Please model this.
Amino acid sequence: MPLLQVHGIKKRFPGVLALDAVDMAIEPGEVLAVIGENGAGKSTLMKILAGIQASDEGEILIDDKPVTIDSPRRATELGIALIHQELNLCDNLTVAANIYLGREPRTFGLIDREAIHQGATTALAQIGLNIAPNTLLRELPIGHQQLIEIAKALSTQARVLIMDEPTSSLTSEEAKALFTVINDLRDRGVAIVYISHRLSEVTALADRVTVLRDGQNAGELPRTEILHNAMVSLMVGRNVSQYYAHQPHEAGEIILQAGDLVVPAWPEHPLNFSVHRGEIVGIAGLVGAGRTELLQVLFGIAPALAGRVLIDGDPQTLHSPVDAIRAGLALVPEDRKQQGLILEMAVADNIGLPGLHRHHRMGFADYARQNADAEQLIQRLSIRTPDAGQIVQYLSGGNQQKVVLAKWLALEPRVLLLDEPTRGIDVGAKEEIYRLMEELAATGVAVLFASSEMEEILGMSDRTFVMHEGHITGQLQRADLSEEAIMHLATGKAA
Model:
């Protein structure tokens, strides 16, 4: 008998039918992967199960009995825990305090700190994280903070554990440790709903796959049929014939050049490199290699300690993003929600922000022109939105990422900097972004992108330079690119 069942769930938002009669079931001790493109309805369905949102129609059954989940507290009481993709923690509190926040055990009305400490120790041991429970959360790297989120969920003694992109911030070793935890939980009878865009993880972990597309059930795959092509076909409704669109071609003259550039995070390693017009250059490296820090210096977010940056041979003073924009640079940051968008504003307003100086008439904002430009970019990038006035936070992750790209394309940059350009988006949206990168390069735009996805580096780079602890250990031409060669350099071994 299924532990959890969902029948005919519907959910509407303004202008969007997010879920349309969705069904789902999961057995005890089963890992059920729920996959689909961004906007397919995965997160909405999980928020309904976690009591964060209410469905408009349909029913939820636990142990074959109908239940009402009208709050996160009720979901916890029913044994359902949701691990959010984006951290839901307080960095000013200790690890133990975060794990028990809002449900602290009490003795005679007072918080039982000893019980919290012991419970946190047990939860941390379950995920193989060897840190002191009294450690301040802000002292931990992002990967460890993600594991704390998982420990928090496990401490509720959940019978159904929903994991939304749980490895998005983890290193490969941390991910392996998590997979061990998942297998242990499965053996103990915990039902796990696993949401991930990393199909290799789904193939390795899932007992069964449920696919959503456009808010509806698109199909289901048993363990023996969980294959990459089968999943992609159900997700996008078509075969992805050419996933990586890049066709290498002859690059033009040098447009971006860095000479003895010193990044604050790694002052002991001056950087020297160049990027040509029409070239797509990848930046590879392990977590903490300095890729993001380099892009932030190039875009004027962080000041360079020394060295120079030249655009078309002209030295640039990059004290702020304004300076970088004037020089023809644009940056798509790793964290689109915190750094790339104003979520409460409309699509058109977000797209128009960098070019406000273009959208005015006699000192007044020219909203008609702004909306017209936004509509053109919405069409060009195939942004799925009811209209240009839609609030950005209601769009899927992939479409939000396209909005970030659109706002920079409106300025026609000469150099496009991309930091993890496809993080947390589905295979269909990835394909579209790859095609856009190729189109921009074909028009002479230089594309410099940092990525943790090896296949992305191998598939889209004309040339790759590899970083380790703040310095460039080597450069690889496309003909020399391989996972082995990149990892050799990424671990600090010079070419």
Q: What stands out?
A: The chain has two domains: 4-236, 254-490. Residues 254-490 form a domain with the Rossmann fold fold (CATH 3.40.50.300). The first helix runs from residue 42 to 49.
